[in-house]
Write a structure and sequence with these properties.
The protein is built from 2 helices and no strands. It is an all-alpha fold.
Length: about 100
């Protein structure tokens, strides 16, 4: 158990020793149960690949959102006045009206 298992070994076993099977080249004498088993295996591989594709898409979306957030923060810090008052120093808005004048 010292070697790392190959994650694609299952897929390699599905395709057999002669590479990818061509549609229609398999002998028609295979038992119906063998064909059904093969279909079920390929459907499970399809499901696994779709799941990984969805995870990949969500990861890309998350990174794009992170990039947009970082760009927004960088844009705010570049346009903020240096050494002066910040937006957090401004008085909070008064509901239903304008801010009272400063004394």
């Amino acid at each position: 158990m010292s070697s790392t298992p190959d994650p694609f070994e299952f897929l390699k076993n599905l395709w057999g020793p002669m590479g990818l099977p061509m549609a229609g080249l398999n002998s028609p004498t295979k038992a119906m149960s063998e064909v059904e088993r093969r279909i079920a295996e390929l459907r499970s591989v399809e499901t696994w690949l779709n799941m990984n594709l969805n995870v990949l898409r969500m990861t890309i979306q998350g990174l794009e959102m992170q990039k947009a957030g970082l760009a927004a923060v960088q844009g705010v810090t570049e346009t903020a006045p240096s050494g002066g008052a910040t937006a957090s120093d401004a008085p909070p808005p008064v509901p239903g009206g304008e801010n009272p004048p400063k004394k």
